[in-house]
Automatic annotation (TrEMBL):
Recorded superkingdom: Eukaryota
Residues of the MI domain: 1-119
GO molecular function per UniProt: mRNA binding; translation initiation factor activity
Protein name: MI domain-containing protein
PANTHER family: EUKARYOTIC TRANSLATION INITIATION FACTOR 4 GAMMA, EUKARYOTIC TRANSLATION INITIATION FACTOR 4 GAMMA 2
């Protein structure tokens, strides 16, 4: 099960699903998600994309093996340790944004819910203060824009309750480098 990075074929993905089913421990699934995502920060983009695909497929198929609540709890755990993870993997915020973008594009979790997780991330909303919230959100927006274009990004943002300005560090007047130029925060 730890070898999810090689779940590149449907057969491998089914094998991971069978292992999870055999584990039969839904209360452990959020921890499993957190471990996988955190571990992916030290991997290659292709492996992170495979992980995102695996999480999406486990949530959308296999009798809904992973539910939205389990994913959210797993992502909350990742966000709880993101500040430390950035020390070891400086692009961890960007990498997490990439995974979040894929989950959003596949309608597994809404951008509003992901935005809430990011905004509340860190101790007492510290992510906003130190700029991690803007980095993660900016990465999400960049990936959506690059993969689906401005019209889809605009539609997703219009359908959300996000106020992008809330993600800007309070003492910063400049835009975040990860946010598309048309979406300054």
């Amino acid at each position: 099960m730890e070898n999810y990075f090689h779940a590149s074929s449907a057969k491998d993905e089914k094998e991971v699903a069978l292992c999870i089913k055999d584990l039969n421990s839904p209360t452990f699934y959020p921890s499993m998600i957190s471990i996988w995502v955190t571990d992916s920060f030290e991997r290659k983009d292709m492996e992170r994309d495979l992980l995102a695909k695996l999480l999406i497929n486990l949530a959308k198929s296999h009798d809904g093996m992973l539910n939205q609540d389990q994913l959210i709890k797993g992502f909350e755990s990742v966000l709880a340790t993101l500040e430390d993870a950035v020390n070891d993997a400086p692009k961890a915020a960007e990498f997490l944004g990439r995974i979040f973008a894929k989950v959003i594009l596949e309608n597994v979790i809404t951008i509003t819910e992901i935005g809430r997780l990011i905004y509340e991330g860190g101790e007492e909303g510290r992510f906003v203060e130190i700029g991690l919230a803007a980095e993660v959100l900016g990465s999400i927006l960049e990936i959506i824009k690059s993969e689906k274009g401005d019209p889809v990004l605009n539609e997703i943002l219009r359908g959300s309750s996000l106020c992008l300005e809330n993600f800007r560090p309070r003492d910063s007047r400049k835009s975040c480098r990860f946010v598309p130029s048309s979406y300054r925060i």
